[in-house]
Design goal:
Number of domains: 2
Structural class: mainly alpha
Order of helices and strands: HHHHH
Number of helices: 5
Largest sheet: none
Shape: flat
Keywords: Membrane, Signal, Transmembrane, Transmembrane helix
Radius of gyration: 18 Å
Length: 105
């Protein structure tokens, strides 16, 4: 199971690097610093999935939860959200090394 979390962490990290690279290329091309929010990046990648996510959250968690998510999480830079998700997944999949070595019971 740790492997799954580590693989998902690596995937999120790769996506964060791609999004940060695209943002930096766009910033250089228009000579102005721009950072795309998560909502814009998500809508560009898959326009219908953002609406589906909204309906799922509203059905299972309630409308106030979606309002909090849309007010706090979606305006954040996409690369920062993906880096935080990668860190959380890596922390879940992390196993502390045994102090007695690999032959400890």
């Amino acid at each position: 199971m740790r492997f799954v979390f580590r693989a998902l962490s690596f995937l999120c990290l790769c996506l964060a690097v791609i999004v940060a690279t695209v943002d930096s290329i766009e910033s250089v091309s228009i000579s102005q610093v721009t950072v795309s929010p998560l909502s814009t990046t998500w809508a560009e990648a898959s326009p219908t999935s953002l609406i589906e996510a909204q309906s799922l959250v509203e059905v299972y968690a309630g409308k106030p939860v979606w309002q909090i998510v849309s007010a706090w999480l979606l305006p954040q830079p996409a690369f920062a959200v993906l880096l935080l998700l990668a860190l959380l997944l890596w922390m879940i999949g992390y196993k502390k090394p045994s102090p007695a070595g690999r032959f400890a019971a």
